[in-house]
Amino acid sequence: MAAATASVHVETSLIPLMGYVKDLATQSNKLGTIPSDYDYSTIRPEDYDTDQHVVAQEQVIPTIDFSLLASNSPKQRSRVIQDLANACRDWGFFMVINHGVPEKLREDMLNAFQNFFDLTEEEKLECAGKHVLDPIRCGTSFNANVEKVFFWRDFLKVLVHPQFHSPSEPPNFSHFGRDTPTNFAYYNSEISLEYCKRTRQVVRELLKAISESLGLEECYIDKVLELESGLQILTGNLYPPCPQPELAMGMPPHSDHGLLTLLIENEIGGLQLKHNGKWINVQALPNSFLVNTGDHLEILSNGKYKSVLHRAVVNSKATRISLAMAHGPCFDKIVTPAPELVDCDKNPPAYLGMRYKEYLELQQSNPLNGKSCLDRVRL
Ligand SMILES: O=C(O)CCC(=O)C(=O)O
Ligand SMILES: [Fe+2]
């Protein structure tokens, strides 16, 4: 008991010393420079490519019309499944339109996170710097305790399924409520719960279609990975304006741990993905979800669908906020390639099985570095 208390004390004490990028940005923008420990270009030239902002020509990113998945016409549904197969195989990324999640709900979520990031450092302290798998955790960079270079990013991570958490609960968090005439909380848990439910529905439908696209039965992924109690983690990312955006990085190249991540952003772009060896700027269609395929889809599909490498670059003009909703298997599930997709002669298993919880802990407690976590289970 004493040891647990001590370790929490040590970790939380690191956060106020380092501070949030949001506060640092005000000072840096006055000076016109960033501190050297945010200069990503000197430390990771291989990722920096010396041409962070030289990206491939705009390309047409695959778009999936979600409403057609519910189509009565089998022909139309099978066309969307084929589109999903192509997107997962060739890109590991697609945009989803006509998904039915109301625009107002998305805006309310972005506002809730904006309100959270607007809190003072002291007010944020209750959510700060705990263990990587704690249900509510905010901080800066990715894992500031283990990084040599920091990223131009603050975050709030909330576990929202199978247990729903919200930073405005339990009641002792209520002092975060702004002192406005109505004294409403900065983060409305009902709105968050609704958003989580709606995005989970979208993902489970997409995964049914993706199952079919792999030649598996429709509910295969849902059943085998026990998505009824699957993990859902909501991460809000804040990227304040940066006076030297060509030197800093919001989030370094990485793949996501789960199956599919649904991302929305305020109107400011910054997400890039690696496609055919080049970085591509993602320009979101209005009201669309940006969908990344994660490491566990790569494992389950035995490498047929590779998780996409992506990163977030920053800019000097405007604050960017993104909300990434990660969806994964059940925490205790040991995920291996689907036996139906393995053939001992022609297509042997390419990944070892690992409990999803352990995988997540491994990814979150190490520096975020490309697909280094997946490499640990690659055969
Ligand atoms: O902000 C973005 O566009 C990317 C965020 C991201 O990759 C993540 O939260 O895993
Ligand atoms: Fe990501």
Automatic annotation (TrEMBL):
Residues 229-329 form the Fe2OG dioxygenase domain. Transmembrane segments: none annotated. It comes from the Eukaryota. GO terms for molecular function: metal ion binding; oxidoreductase activity. The keyword Iron applies. The keyword Oxidoreductase applies. The lineage of its organism: Eukaryota, Viridiplantae, Streptophyta, Embryophyta, Tracheophyta. SUPFAM superfamilies: Clavaminate synthase-like (SSF51197). It holds the Pfam family DIOX_N. Keywords: Iron, Metal-binding, Oxidoreductase. This is Fe2OG dioxygenase domain-containing protein. InterPro entries: DIOX_N, IPNS-like_FE2OG_OXY, IPNS-like_sf, Oxoglu/Fe-dep_dioxygenase_dom, Plant_2OG-oxidoreductases. Belongs to the iron/ascorbate-dependent oxidoreductase family.
